[in-house]
Automatic annotation (TrEMBL):
Species name: Phycomyces blakesleeanus (strain ATCC 8743b / DSM 1359 / FGSC 10004 / NBRC 33097 / NRRL 1555)
GO annotation terms (biological process): L-histidine biosynthetic process
Pathway(s) this gene product operates in, as recorded in its UniProt entry: Amino-acid biosynthesis; L-histidine biosynthesis; L-histidine from 5-phospho-alpha-D-ribose 1-diphosphate: step 8/9
GO cellular component term, pick one: cytoplasm
Family, as annotated: Belongs to the PHP hydrolase family. HisK subfamily.
Catalytic activity, reaction form: L-histidinol phosphate + H2O = L-histidinol + phosphate
One Gene Ontology term of the molecular function aspect: histidinol-phosphatase activity
SUPFAM superfamilies from the UniProt entry: PHP domain-like (SSF89550)
Enzyme Commission numbers on file: 3.1.3.15
Domain PHP: 5-216
PANTHER family: HISTIDINOL PHOSPHATASE-RELATED, HISTIDINOL-PHOSPHATASE
Name by which UniProt lists this protein: Histidinol-phosphatase
Alphabetized InterPro entries for the sequence: Histidinol_P_phosphatase_HisJ (IPR010140), PHP_dom (IPR004013), Pol/histidinol_Pase-like (IPR016195)
Keywords: Amino-acid biosynthesis, Histidine biosynthesis, Hydrolase
Length: 304
C-alpha cells in the first residue's frame, strides 16, 4: 500500500507548482491509499521570508492567510475524494528559532490538524536548503569552514525542535548534507561529536514513538542516498525505530517521485516493515505494514 506524508503544491507554496487538487488526483491515479497534505506552516518574522517570497511581495500576514486557505481546500478535497483515497491534513513545520515551538502548539490547537512533519530548514536562522550560496554562508558563518561543526549545530538545533514539538513524522532527518560534498559529508557525520548528536536525536524520537520518513526527494538533489542515509538507517533499525515513506512532492508530477529507487533502497537497507499514519475512530494512529518490499504496488510503478 503506497503512502506519503510530506507534500506541497504551487497553489500554497512559492517553490512548488500546480494545484493541490491535481496533486490529490495524481496520488489517486498512481494508486496511493493514504496521502498526507502538509503545506509549510507560516513564518512569523519578516526576516524569515525567502527571497522568492519577498519578490512576490509576501508578508507574514499573507503567509498565514495562505495556510488557512490551504486548510479549507484540503478539507474540501478530503470530503470530495473520501471514497478514493484517505487524505490526512497536516503541516511541515519550521523551527527557525525556539519561539516556533509556541507557534506549532498554536497551530495544532487552533487548526486541529492531524499531524506535523518536523523539519529543520535553517541552522542558526540561516536557510540551509534554499541555495548552495546560502549553504556556503552557513558553513562559513556557523562552521567556520568546518563541515562537522555545521553538522553538529544542525543536529543540536534539530534536537531542540524534537524536544519542543515531538513531531509525528520526522522530516528529512539529515537534510544538512544537501549541498555538501558527499564524501566529506560522510566524514563529518562520523566525527564523534556529530555521531553522538545523531544517536541522541534518534533515541529521543524512538522514545516518544515518532516515525522517521524515508524521503525520496534527496535523489532529485543528486545525493546517493535518500534521507536519511544508510548509516543512520542502520542506527534507527538498531534502536527499533519506525520508518514511513515520503515523496516530498512539490507538484503533481512529483507524486511518487523516485519510488522505483525507493523500492531498491528499502531492499538494500534491509527494511521489511513500514509504518503509516491513518485515522482510527477520529484520531490518527500509527499502523505497521509488514513485508513492504513484496507489496504488489511496486510492480505498478513502471506503468506510471
Amino acid at each position: 500500500m503506497p503512502f506519503s506524508y510530506h507534500s506541497h503544491s504551487g497553489q500554497f507554496c512559492h517553490h512548488g507548482y500546480g494545484k493541490l487538487e491535481d496533486v490529490v488526483k495524481q496520488a489517486i491515479r498512481k494508486g496511493f491509499k493514504v496521502y498526507g497534505l502538509s503545506e509549510h506552516m507560516p513564518r512569523f518574522d519578516s526576516n524569515h521570508l525567502y527571497p522568492e517570497e519577498i519578490q512576490a511581495n509576501c508578508t507574514t500576514s499573507t503567509l498565514a492567510t495562505a495556510y488557512s486557505a490551504f486548510l479549507v481546500e484540503a478539507r474540501r478535497l478530503q470530503e470530495v475524494y473520501k471514497d478514493q483515497i484517505e487524505l490526512l491534513i497536516g503541516a511541515e513545520i519550521e523551527f527557525i528559532d525556539p519561539s516556533y515551538a509556541n507557534h506549532v502548539r498554536d497551530l495544532r490547537k487552533s487548526h486541529t490538524i492531524d499531524y506535523v512533519v518536523g523539519s529543520l530548514h535553517h541552522t542558526h536562522s540561516i536557510p540551509i536548503d534554499f541555495s548552495p550560496e546560502l549553504y556556503q554562508h552557513a558553513l562559513e558563518h556557523i562552521g567556520k569552514g568546518k563541515l562537522d561543526a555545521l553538522f553538529k549545530a544542525y543536529f543540536d538545533e534539530q534536537y531542540k525542535m524534537l524536544l519542543s514539538v515531538k513531531p509525528e513524522v520526522v522530516g528529512h532527518f539529515d537534510l544538512i548534507r544537501i549541498f555538501a560534498d558527499q564524501t566529506k559529508a560522510s566524514v563529518a557525520l562520523n566525527q564523534p561529536e556529530v555521531w553522538e548528536a545523531v544517536v541522541r536525536n534518534v533515541d529521543f524520537v524512538v522514545s516518544y514513538g515518532g516515525v522517521f520518513e524515508i524521503n525520496s526527494r534527496a535523489w532529485k538533489k543528486g545525493l546517493l542516498d535518500a534521507y536519511p542515509q544508510r548509516e543512520i538507517i542502520k542506527l534507527i533499525q538498531s534502536k527499533g525505530g519506525k520508518f514511513t515513506l515520503s515523496d516530498d512532492c512539490h507538484g503533481p508530477n512529483d507524486v511518487g517521485m523516485f519510488y522505483d529507487k525507493l523500492h531498491q533502497y528499502l531492499k538494500d537497507t534491509g527494511i521489511k516493515n513500514i509504518h503509516y499514519l491513518t485515522k482510527r475512530n477520529g484520531a490518527v494512529a500509527v499502523e505497521e505494514l509488514e513485508d513492504i518490499v513484496t507489496d504488489p504496488f511496486w510492480a505498478k510503478i513502471e506503468h506510471w
